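REVIEWER CHECKLIST
Item 1: Sequence provided? yes
Item 2: Single chain? yes
Item 3: Sequence as submitted:
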Amino acid sequence: MFFLYFVILEWMVALEAAFAYRNGFLYRGQGSEPRPGHRISFYIEHGGMWGDLVFVSAIVASMISRGLPYWTMKAYAFSGVISLVLSMAMLKMWAGASKDMDDSFMKDGNLTACGAIHGLYMFVAIATLILYYAFTPVVATTPMFRAIVSVLLMIHIIAGVIQPDWHTNGSISLNTWLTAGGAWTILLGAWLYPYILR
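Item 4: Structure as written out by the authors:
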């Protein structure tokens, strides 16, 4: 089943790229220019998209394959609600940033087709991470797998949170550092807590 989940997730990334291309925001040179007073960001310049393509889809598909037999409806409901809240919070942050920046996800505070698909991808990924770390017994995985995916996800935080801010603004804001630091802390705790509680 891993391959099926992996293909679906990668198809979503490809669909994001297709809509970004249609809107002229896939790469520089498509003709899109920043409007007066606006910055501009292109899809392939966003480190998080490369992380999704190269390893996040594979990680999420692996987590689903390993954890699916153990997840209950209560686990799905809890993870879905938390993921929805986090995803909506991130979309709200994008909307605020888009007031003076044109990119593939948002324009003038409005979600583009590319952004909507990425929002769905993000929802599925975050819900799966919660299901894996909170509701998958240690016997269903291995310390090595847990360590590898946790380290890769920490790297993805750099690619998906820190790099876009630095690339677009030439600096990294305090809010970006706080967001990344909070995500790293939660991820580190989720990775290690089964072993600490032994």
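Item 5: Key structural point noted by reviewer: Residues 2-21+38-196 form one domain.
Item 6: Recommendation: ____
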